[in-house]
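Could you join me in thinking about how sequence relates to backbone shape in a protein? We need material for that, and I hope you will provide a protein of your own picking. Label the sequence line and the structure token line clearly, so we can match residues to local backbone shapes. Would you write everything just below, so we can both look at the same thing?
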Amino acid sequence: MLVQRDYLIDYDGDLLSPLWVTYKLDSARLGNVERIDCFRQDIRLRPESASGPSDYNEPVFDQGHIAPNGDMSNSANSVLNSFIMSNMAPQYCQFNRGVWQILESLVRHWAAEKEVVYVTSGSVFDQNDDQARDADDEAPRMKANNGKERVGIASAFYKVIVWDDGDEHLKSISFLLPHDQTDLDGDEALEYLNSHISKMEEIEEVSSLDILPDAASEPSEATKLWPHEGFVSHSLVNDVCRRTAGADQQ
């Protein structure tokens, strides 16, 4: 477990990737600090257990934030602290800059409306699709240009958003997204997200995680997108990214 001021990471020292992150997203802490690229190894980890930028020196995958820097925009320090490599997972650029980034923006839209939400995001390793987490040694690994294959590649990513409606009633919406090269924008991306709303129980099963262990009652789970009037879905996928289409996991 790695503790930051703004979020928690459950890090896997074999897969060299975060299994999950969790944090409170308070609209009052959403600021205007822009992205400050500062990818760096987490010095709290032993070298053999820590990923570094060199592991991502290859042509296919992005260094994908699991706790997004946009959720930490209240200060420069918070933004910088989101760029530690223990918060990164290999993500196809179409995924990272497309539907995943759109979902991150949508969560901030909901946080601004609801004032406070609680976010848990993580990686799924289930290559054989048996709805159970694979053993670490079964995960495919990203192959860096230096020939090393160290960092595990997730088969899917999830995000669970929980909101207390003020009457001690928890409401939640959960997404389970295949980690692939789906490339969508605008309304099509929102329709895709709507079609990948999941039950929290399904995410817990495939990730071996109890997401709300101390909740007094089960949340009311959404089966369609929460209202999002005024939200504009905008993909950041570019032509360079699209040229990786069809690339196989290494």
The chain has a mean pLDDT of 94. The chain is about 20% helix and 25% strand. Residues 173 and 222 are 5 Å apart (CA to CA). Helices lie at 76-81, 93-97, 99-114, 186-195, 200-207, 239-242.
